[in-house]
Every structure is written in C-alpha cells, then in structure tokens.
Description:
Blueprint: E1 12-15, E2 21-28, E3 31-36, E4 43-45, E5 50-51, H1 55-69
Antiparallel strand pairs: 1-2, 1-5, 2-3, 3-4
Amino acid sequence: MAEPSLPALRAVMVDSRTGRIGRVMGSEGPYVQLRPLNGGRERDVPPDHLRSPTPAEEMRAKVAVANGRWGR
C-alpha cells in the first residue's frame, strides 16, 4: 500500500472523521497536525483521513473566523 503524501504546510484541510476544518501545522510521527482556523490546540489526524475542503466549506469556515473577530 502506498503511503499517503502529506499536505503542504499552512494548507487548509478537512478531518474526514469529524468534518472539522483546520490548517496544517506540521507532522508528528505518523500524524498530521491540524489547527483550527480560529486558533487553538492542534490535533493529530492520520494523513489518510485528510481531504481538501470544498470551496463552500472553506468559505464558511473563513467567514466564521472573521465574524468571531468582529463579535458577530
């Protein structure tokens, strides 16, 4: 079985197990570290459970972060 390639640092990805969107911060052992777009703790995600977000998912996540900054 081929090993999945790791996404680029700072790439926006989705953890397919939970549907959470985050930014790739690096890797630790067999896991990719994904941090929520609005900050917070990184979580370890197996590379085979990562996928690129749809344009709508990415936009929704970025709007939620922006609204949080402005108190909406």
